[in-house]
């Protein structure tokens, strides 16, 4: 897994904001897609983040996404780039929503990256974040 490539890809999809904003679903977010939760809510809604704070949140959130992706599929059983796509999806969705992609998971277990790509595009997630979903599906298809 190429962490730097993954960070750049996630930053491209999430954007980088020093001040809190509402994402496409109305959730308060800051930095690079960091969901603001209690007890940090009051501080982060008013904060202007410095680069090191953004990097800290990104590293923490990315580690969680990697763990979530590993819970979804065995990292060593699929192509490295395909696994990075799953990490990106986990970063965006969280494990509970990612775990609902049962047909995607089955396609990955069969190393059927074309079908995996199609499963990604046939989801509600793809309608919510079409640019991200289309880009990641193309990457998955070519994995």
Task: Characterize the structure shown.
64% of the residues lie in helices and 8% in strands. By secondary structure, the chain is mostly helical. It has one domain (3-141): Lysozyme. It has a 3-stranded antiparallel sheet. Strand 2 (28-31) and strand 3 form a beta hairpin. Helix 4 (80-93) packs antiparallel against helix 9, helix 6 (102-109) packs antiparallel against helix 7 and helix 7 (113-121) runs antiparallel to helix 9. The protein is elongated and about 45 Å long. It starts with a helix and ends with a helix.
Describe the protein's topology.
Blueprint: H1 3-14, E1 17-22, E2 28-31, E3 34-35, H2 41-46, H3 51-72, H4 80-93, H5 95-98, H6 102-109, H7 113-121, H8 124-128, H9 130-141
Antiparallel strand pairs: 1-2, 2-3
Helix pairs in contact: 1-4, 3-4, 4-9, 6-7, 7-9
Summed up, what is this model?
With about 140 residues, the protein is mainly alpha-helical.
Largest sheet, in brief, is: 3 strands, antiparallel
Write the element-wise H/E pattern from the N-terminal end onward. HEEEHHHHHHHH
**How many domains is the backbone divided into?**
1
Low-confidence stretches: none
Rg, Cα atoms, Å: 15 Å
- Termini gap: 13 Å
Shape: elongated
- Briefly note the structural class of the backbone: mainly alpha
Mean pLDDT: 95
Query: Which fold name fills CATH's third level, the topology?
Result: Lysozyme
Strand content: 5-15%
Q: How many β-strand stretches?
A: 3
CATH class: Mainly Alpha
| Amount of helix | 55-70%
Total number of helical segments? 9
Side by side, the strands of the main sheet go: 1-2-3
CATH hierarchy: architecture: Orthogonal Bundle
């Amino acid at each position: 897994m190429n962490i730097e490539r993954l960070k750049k890809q996630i930053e491209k999809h999430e954007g980088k904001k020093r001040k809190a904003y509402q994402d496409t679903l109305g959730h308060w977010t800051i930095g690079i897609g960091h969901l603001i939760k209690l007890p940090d809510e009051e501080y982060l809604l008013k904060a202007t983040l410095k680069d090191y704070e953004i990097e800290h949140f990104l590293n923490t959130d990315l580690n969680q996404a990697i763990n979530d992706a590993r819970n979804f599929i065995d990292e060593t059983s699929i192509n490295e780039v395909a696994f990075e796509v799953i990490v990106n999806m986990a970063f965006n969705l969280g494990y509970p929503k990612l775990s609902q992609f049962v047909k995607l998971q089955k396609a990955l277990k069969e190393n059927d990256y074309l079908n995996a790509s199609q499963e990604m595009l046939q989801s509600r997630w793809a309608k919510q974040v079409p640019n991200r979903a289309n880009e990641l599906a193309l990457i998955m298809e070519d994995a």
